[in-house]
Design a protein that fits this description.
Number of strands: 8
Strand content: 5-15%
Helix content: 40-55%
Structural class: alpha/beta
Length: 395
Amino acid sequence: MRITDFSLSRLPRIEFGSGVLAKLPAIAHGYGTQALLVTGAGSLKNSPLWPAVTSGLKAQGISWLHLAIPGEPSPQRVDEAVRALRTESIDMVIGIGGGSALDAAKAIAGLLRPGNSVMDHLEGVGPELPYAGPATPFIAVPTTAGTGSEATKNAVLSVQGPDGFKKSFRDEKLVAEVALVDPDLLATCPPDVIAANGMDAFTQLLESYVSSRAAPLTDSLAWGGMKAARDGLTALYADAGDAMARERMAYAALASGITLAQVGLGSVHGLAAPLGAFFPIPHGVACGTLVAMATRINIETLRTRDLGHSALEKYAQVGRLLSHQGQLDQVASHAALIDTLETWTRDLGLPTLAHYGVTPTDIPRIVANSRGSSMKTNPVRLEDGEIATILAARI
């Protein structure tokens, strides 16, 4: 195996394991005595975790303010929070929740001290000014297994509607100081959230593995993550009380965040951005409903244009992994990969795009807005018609 050139960007200190949430108060104490807790709309505050977290902080002499983020965060919501909170002498931002809560917390932590608008830095909109910092220390505690935001340098923000967008505020200074990944926090996830987030994590692992920037180090992480997802996703969907399945999916999501941050993604995430901007479709659902067809189109396109491309054998390796059939030839392995993804999509109940109001007449607009950073690391450059085929198959 040739070790190709690569670079590794900054990662958080990672604490992984059952019960590591209990370490949060002591870790937070190392950053000061005033915290901002950023969570989702209300499920955490209404759970037994909330008094456990807040009493632990209180015991360490830490006071806190609480900010709830309903749904996917918008630039306006981030700017409002920064304006309201930047005079509060906040020593640390603690994000506890799914990907949306973590992304909001990450963006707010990045701007509390500089005080300017996040629109100054969003990729693809506005002036795209370089981010100078400094960021307020950020601690990430994921309660779902999906986006891997606890390990990434980007905060994804959305404006929904006909003129909407879904773009990243991205810089290494935004990476969490500490990521506390506690699989026990997945025990209260409903099945539809497990399905969508789990498919997002697997998609991130697969797209990282075949990315045009893939490297041996990220391949190793992606491979282990995909194996964990193979053995954990449907098991966790069937029973959130399955501790081993929780561990596997928490690890898969963490690994997916690390790999995507290093080498990028592909066509599924390229399409998920405009879909999430123009329609009320959750990010994980968009990824989960598209990944089987997008993989099929990537493979067919590579076979037509570049039969010797390394991604074709990588797709075959994943097909053998998921099917437990290590002796399959390349063509049969590709079929096994697509069959497994289609089976997961069906068995996990991922809805079609039409469920969220997408119609064939919307396809040209979605395609036209799909060529962001994720599409640039797809293993093959897809033509507009090929991208349209992916969408049409899932309406």
